[in-house]
Each structure stands twice: as structure tokens, then as C-alpha cells.
Amino acid sequence: MCGLHVPNVPNCQMSKIYKKGKQSRITRLYLHLHLHLHLHGWLLLKLTRPPKHLKGLIIGACSGGNMGNLPIILVPAMCKEKGSPFGPADVCETYALSYASLSMAIGAVYLWSYVYNVVRISAEEVAAGEIDANYYSLVADSEQRRLIDPSSKPPVSLPQRMSHSIRSFLEKANLKAVLAPSTIAAILGFAIGMISPIRNLMIGNDAPFHVVTDSAFMLGEAAIPALTVILGANLLQGLRGSGIQLRVVIGIVVVRFIILPLLGILIVKGALRVGLVPYDDKLFVFLLLIQYAMPPAMNIGTMTQLFGAGQSECSVIMLWTYALASVSLTLWSTLFLWIVT
């Protein structure tokens, strides 16, 4: 499964960003308002008190939504519906692919820089038997373990303390994971799409390096089918069940399908009021809204498999959230369409 996933998704992100996007549209998407709240997962932990090895999984499932293959499938498809409020179908589909692809790219950076480290740190602390209330912190406590008698230690200047804290953070954050293929593809896509000289070299039939664009686009076309196969495999594992508490699953469903969409409406409405998001771009507003109603990201399952922490429980969570997403997305999409029109 991972062999299908790794080579195709980065090409999908990069090709659609620089082939579909325009500079003004890409710049506007830097105002991405999808707020991933760690607080929801933390509160759910306090309410449900799950086993220690599930803490990273629960926070990841609450804070990391599917910003990739589902928006790329759903949003362009809505452009083809009769009576769509987003204008001509061909123009709508072009911008829908651009917006959804950038959503995938931003989501990949977020997942592999933040959610990945949450799951990793939680798994490492469980293995070491050192779980504490601040398990989600990216700053290691190695400095405290090396403390000696203050009376015999020379004073340390503020710049030295800051430098040591930054080094500790970088060591704990695991930059190799942050610079995953999906993240590198997102960076390349942004660079090619926003820098005119590079874009002119890569995009268009007369571009000197258009063969690179065409090759990336062809490989990227296989990303969505590959992700769908991976999703089906995860859901099949969820059918076999596990010992996960029912209240944990219910809590994640409530957070992802009730609390976050309502919060998203408030945030996007506020952004519209202060002028961060243009009123006339209904498609962009709709995409910002629908991202709040998405089920957990599929990459969370990959992370749990990497660290051996909660694989079977993750499959159960994915099974129920994606099964309920068919109903939830229908209802929320109807409300979001009413809001943008």
C-alpha cells in the first residue's frame, strides 16, 4: 500500500498546484483559515481517559482532517452539478482543482510537521514509561535531566539558553519527517506556481521543460485511486474490531462532525467580515467551510503503523468516521452552499 502512496501523492500535489493555479489565487490561499485545534483532542482525553498509547492518536484524529483526496473528489464534482452556484463548470473545475490541491499540500505540511510529532512523542513516551501531562510538547526535557547544583553552575546568558532551546526543539521535531515527499512537493509546487520565470519554464506547450510538468501530472493522476485503495484497506481492518472504548469513538465523531464545522462557520464568517476572504469567491469560501467537516486524515493511520501505537484502534476510528462522513458531509455541504449563496 505504501508503495502506491509514496510516488503518486507528491506528484499530484505539485502538478496540480503549478499547472492549475494562478499567482493571485495561490497567494490568497496562504490565508488558509482551517484552524486545527489541539484543545479539542486534549479536552476529549480528559473526558474519556483512554489508554496512554492512544493519546497521540486521539489528538491527531481531532486536529488533522482529510484535506486531500476528499476535497479533490467532492469540490470539482460539485462544479458539474446542474444549477451550481460557482459559475461555468469548466472555470469552476479549474479553480476547484487548484484550491483542493493546495488544500492537500497545506494539509500535508501540517500533518507531517505537527500531527506526526504528536503521535511520535506519545509513542516514545509510552515505550519509555515517561508519560506526563505535557506529552504533546515538542521541547524535550533533556535540559532538566542535565541540571546540576545551581551553586556550582556558572550563569548562562539569555542568548545561550535560547540557542539551546532551539537546538533541543529541532532535535525533537525530527526534521527528516517534516521534509517528507509530500512536504517537498508542496514547497516545489508553491515555488513553481508563484514565481513567474520558473512557471514560464515549466508550464505550457512551448515551455522548455514542459515534459517535467506532463510527467508529474501523469503520475499524480494515480494518487486519488491509490489513496482510495489504502482507505478501503484501513476500513477493512476496522471491521475486525478492537478494544477501543465506545466513548472515544463517539467523542471523535462529535468533535469532527459537530464542533469543528460550527466553529468553522464562525471563523470563516469572521474572516469575511474583516476582509481576509473575498465575498465574491464563493468556491473559495465553500472550500474553507467544508474542510472543517472532513473526517480524520488517512495519513494518521500511516503514522500509527510507523510507531506501532494504536493501529487497530485507528482502523476502527477510520471505519466509523468515514461511514458517518457520507451523511455528515451531505448535511453540512447543504448548509455551506446555503451560506455562500
From TrEMBL:
This is Protein PIN-LIKES 1 isoform X2. GO terms for biological process: auxin-activated signaling pathway; endoplasmic reticulum to cytosol auxin transport. It is found in: Endoplasmic reticulum membrane. Involved in cellular auxin homeostasis by regulating auxin metabolism. Regulates intracellular auxin accumulation at the endoplasmic reticulum and thus auxin availability for nuclear auxin signaling. It is a multi-pass membrane protein. The chain crosses the membrane at residues 57-75, 95-115, 177-196, 216-236, 248-272, 284-307, 319-340. Pfam families: Mem_trans. It comes from the Eukaryota. GO terms for cellular component: endoplasmic reticulum membrane.
